[in-house]
Amino acid sequence: xxxxxxxxxxxxxxxxxxxxxxxxxxxxxxxxxxxxxxxxxxxxxxxxxxxxxxxxxxxxxxxxxxxxxxxxxxxxxxxxxxxxxxxxxxxxxxxxxxxxxxxxxxxxxxxxxxxxxxxxxxxxxxxxxxxxxxxxxxxxxxxxxxxxxxxxxxxxxxxxxxxxxxxxxxxxxxxxxxxxxxxxxxxxxxxxxxxxxxxxxxxxxxxxxxxxxxxxxxxxxxxxxxxxxxxxxxxxxxxxxxxxxxxxxxxxxxxxxxxxxxxxx
Amino acid sequence: xxxxxxxxxxxxxxxxxxxxxxxxxxxxxxxxxxxxxxxxxxxxxxxxxxxxxxxxxxxxxxxxxxxxxxxxxxxxxxxxxxxxxxxxxxxxxxxxxxxxxxxxxxxxxxxxxxxxxxxxxxxxxxxxxxxxxxxxxxxxxxxxxxxxxxxxxxxxxxxxxxxxxxxxxxxxxxxxxxxxxxxxxxxxxxxxxxxxxxxxxxxxxxxxxxxxxxxxxxxxxxxxxxxxxxxxxxxxxxxxxxxxxxxxxxxxxxxxxxxxxxxxxxxxxxxxxxxxxxxxxxxxxxxxxxxxxx
Lengths: 265, 294
Description:
heterodimer, A: mainly alpha, 13 helices, B: alpha/beta, six-stranded mixed sheet, 14 strands, about 30% strand, elongated
């Protein structure tokens, strides 16, 4: 418990900053919706001039864009990007922080097992993500209610917004797994930005080409917002893969972390 | 009873560093010195004992329990002070010590106060703002606050001023009298000589010798220095047992180990102006170990 609280405190500041940023993106995007829906026809005309591959890649689909839900799912692409970076940062940090800040000798000479250490850290990270997600969900519901022009499917909105947490857990796992392999992570943010953007770009390519094979490679596309809008359901095979990735990366991280040599400065 | 037992412990990292086939025992209640130059494998051995790293082969036990298998259990009774101390920067000294104490199931508040007073440590400061010496003090308090049965110190005195060093040594001696066993690693011989009962000498990852400090010093090592009336043939004192022979003008100096009569006979046969016979300090004996193997 002492380690959990200590870790929670250590990530308090970044968690608050990330949460505020994500909420700010939500408010910013949703605040533009009234103006957007007013001029939707003209906007559509401009968009029609764009190549279809491009509009698909950046998450614009004409049929749904004038609806508040469709509009939100467009904004959600960028929120997912933010959330993924936050989760990856956490995943990398919880594993590499002690070696980077050279406090490993303090923590690992205490009467605790490595499993206990990593469990506390993981729980603290998940708690931080939960905090972010609660704020996010709250801000989404409030802003969508304010700006909506017509009725929309509440269930669809919930299902889309809740998938942020799922995506973040995948990136948390990936971050941990990456950090147990890299002997010394010098800068968390550069590793995490690099990896997250790589996945994001693969996601854009996969969206624009509708390549099913490529879609398996990027957690960004495991939940398809337009599929949810149409069917009010997740695509279970992708959810399954996501869950498998979470379990596998977390379990492997624990196994390796327990056996790893903690090198000195 | 042996508190620490190390059996053929080997750690290979890549090609160069590491230790090979290290074995020695530390008995209950003794202050055991672990000595060798930088990079000889002192820290590697200690990190293996604390299971920060895992052995390639061989094993070690502390309190009779395997250090890998029972790592967390053993550590309840170990206090460790690393050579370089790093703590969570944004914490206050008090908070860090509280955090450290929270890992042990006993109330350490009184003890923290006591230790901080002895070491003159300001508990209200931020760790970030502390000097190297003061950080070291945090390390000392942190390592001793739970009254461990085994204290492991890795070059503990760097950064401490002589007065604090003195207080720290007094503190260690007091803990030792209360029954704590101490493993003290250092490359500074005088402090080991002062504090320790026995010593293991490590060189290039291998134990060269384990000896009682007293034996090491009394082992008929004598330091000779003499002034002759006339200049001497360099080879005159080149007999078995003579080491570090130096002749500068009419001054001759060397360290001798063996039957003292062979040397007194030699000296009797020449005219001398002056003669000093001294106990060599550990450093000189130590140099002898190192040079012999080169």
